[in-house]
């Protein structure tokens, strides 16, 4: 049984009503209250987590009584995945094979992005083999148990429910590595486009099963195809190869009455944002400020078109209470206008002091627990 550290913010709407109204620029009782989780180290470093047995994001969400948001989806990536296994143990790291078939060196004692060493896919022949063995659209594992999901998420639920739309290029980047994707786009562009097309077909297959049976409040996805210097693929590739697949997915979403679609993409998304919007993705998540901009910059530029979830600069939380307060105050007009839900602009790192984080949560309630 999880002890509760913070009571749920009071309100007169359900979480579902509040989320839908806020993301459509309509008046709400108060701001939707959520966060995007924590580094693994936080569960060991912060006494409030350690002493209360909080070990994961779901438990932390209950601990802080955040509003509820859920997503369901199908099996839209590699199936079966590669076996995850340790190949070699070194003094401070492991050489391992991950679920995408990559050999990588990972640190033993802290969370960090692994150093990727070798991909299972380099040539079109490699891709044909992996596609045949792990990307079959008729794989029985891709059949969704609709009745089980309907029992978990009935139509009269009081929280927003999203449908998962996967990734058109981000997971391909994971499988090939950043360097491998760059070479593949130059050497084997038809192979890369076939990968994108395969991802699109798998998402469409899942949507065809799910959309007739649920009244979804939003769609979600994941790309991570930008760094702090911009996209990891050319704008022409994104426009000509990725965006048309977004349009196909968006057509299905729109026919099902879904008009909010967010994707998780770190880094500077500004160069690809026009293509995201044209493709149907109209919400950014979790919107890393240091790699991009203050969320108000894009909300002003694309007023009425764009929504943002996230965008609270974690570096301000690391800096302490004074900078945290000044930053949150800069977000007030955007929360009040709608189309924006503030939370830490990625998983909160252990560099943020526990005392500062609790101050931040309380200040959010003071500033945004409106009416």
Which CATH architecture of the largest domain? Alpha-Beta Barrel
Order of helices and strands: HHHHEEEEEHHEHHHEEEHEHEHEHHEH
> Could you tell me the strand content as a percent range?
5-15%
The CATH class label of the largest domain is: Alpha Beta
Q: How many structurally independent domains?
A: 2
Low-confidence segments, given as residue ranges, are: none
Roughly what is the average pLDDT, rounded to an integer? 96
Structural summary, described in words:
By secondary structure, the protein is an alpha/beta fold. The protein folds into 2 domains: 15-80 and 120-368, TIM Barrel; 83-119, no CATH class. It is 42% helix and 13% strand. α7 (170-176) crosses α8, α8 (178-187) crosses α9 (189-210) and α10 runs parallel beside α11 (273-279). The two termini are 32 Å apart. The relative contact order is 0.13. The mean pLDDT is 96.
Summarize the structure.
With 371 residues, this protein is α/β, with parallel strands linked by helices.
